[in-house]
Amino acid sequence: MAKEIETGKPAAETNEIVCWNNLPDVTDRKFWEKQRSNPLYPEIRKNAQEACSQELISPMPHYYDVFVTGNRICYQEKLFSVQDFGSLAIACCIDQEPRFLKNIEDRLRLLLDLPTWILPAHDREKLNVSGKTVDIDLNSSKLADELSTLLYLLGPVLNHDLAEKLKAELFRRLVIPVEDAIGGKSPLPFWMLTNSNWNAVCTSGVVGAVLRLPMQATRRDGILNHMLETSKKFLDGFGPDFYCSEGISYFFFGFGHYMRMVMLLKQFDGRDLFEADPRAFKIAMFPENFMISPVCFPTYADIPIDFKLNPFLMELRDILIGRRNGFSCKVPPNGNLVSIAQFDNGLNALALQLSLFSGEPPFSPESCKTAPMNVFPSAESYIVRRTADTHLSVAFKGGSNNEMHNHNDVGSYIVAVDDTAVVTDPGKETYQARTFSERRYESDLLNSFGHSVPRIGGKLQTEMKHTGDTRARLLEEKLADGSPLFVRFDIRRPYQHVEGIEKLERSFSFARRDGEGFTVTDEAVFRDPLEFEDAVITFGEVRQLSEKTFLITEKGKSLLLEVDASLPFDFHIEIIKEQTDHKRPVNRMTFAVKEKVRQVKMTFKYSISQDNAAH
Fold first, then answer.
1. CATH number at residue 489
2. What is the pTM of this model?
3. Is the separation of the CB atoms in 177 and 135 below 8 Å?
4. Which of 107, 378, 440, 551 yields a CA-CA distance of 20 to 30 A from 356?
């Protein structure tokens, strides 16, 4: 499917203009008419028809919302709707209906009229919207990747002037800024230096675009080689235990784009980045190693509380590691319209699916195989899963407050009954201007107020950049089979701004035998009397059964909580009032010692209620 001028030499050894894609362009009628018999076709056509009925509105009137009101959503939703080419482009290639082509051209004209393709939240100095610079961000790189595929597939039938303008803009908005950075004409951008999802998303976008855009082979290969070196930094971000501190949804966002790049390069010239760097294979197993169950995940960091496994990406992962031969007959749902953090199942996802279609059964979460326990030593993160005849699973962490998409949550934990997290982490807030600014920890969902950790002397945990190291220190660990699990941390460091803390330890104990139970114990010693308060976070209904006993119920699953303390305490429930996508109230069960103390011990014992055991 490569378009290469015949010279008698491999294209990579010449300066001839080349481009490549994993699907042929629209003029290959034999290939495209054959796709009508593909089980994917009916849903692709249906989605394309629906896309044609949508009103196309420029997002530009909302570009400045984030600077005035902090709102990111209005602009992003309208932009994502316009740049949704997936089913439209594929249906246009198959059916060649004029209405599909017209709608695509209308979308292109609207996008080409935008002064920038980056998101306003990533243009804080307004240098891109004013035309003073051309940066590359998560959206512009992804969009350029999609549009380069669109140009390759539909270039022969697009309006000629529009196609030429699109090609010129792809070079201006993506290729030339990358070359300027590589060549030293401009500083290396943030995404080339970081080990976060930005690295993978932007690198993947650049690789996809330069493969498909017509350019000299030597020019293309120079960019590709630099991008492959850049992508190694992304793998560095997982650390020696292959843990993703960005959380599970950003794992799929970042590593999902990395996998798409890996597969595209494998299709292009046979190179296998998984084979070249064994870390990639181990990182690919993170979902099974991190999940509480296939439908329940720890919601650490900026994660939606209703996160579900992405079937398309799980199928792609399984193809890369040799578990599948190709994709199933299920069209991936469009993730474009909700959040930039969701994987974009657009044109390039469909192109991969058609190019590697096998018709095998769709991915099922139930196919995930997990161990009884996973430990990430470097991240100090533990997952302990229920067995076939038990109900209780837990996730807990030491960690630090210097993680990617960090929440101030050293010592946080999650308690699940069957597949439901009853005591939980509240996940992400609705993204707004402050979320990724110096004001981030004003949010009671992101600071430690929104996590099941202590507040001492009226003060919350702090983040590393203001106070130095905040990492918990592992003091004791017993993980032997057949005996209760026990882990104890010194968690003074995230409270180092509170004077006089001589001891602050949190221990976790989990037992399956002789009755299921999970116990969290805090022990503190202070030089001078201080206020001490502990918390439990839940979305569930809380019923107080006695002075120290509580029933917490979430989605029909219940936990018994027994609280014991060395000194009298007051209990009350607070609603955390922050803006969230899920709109559910977040309950903070607060347990505050009545007087200032020099020494205190507080224990939270969780067990299964009889209602759950009966099921």
1. 2.70.98.70
2. 0.94
3. yes
4. 107
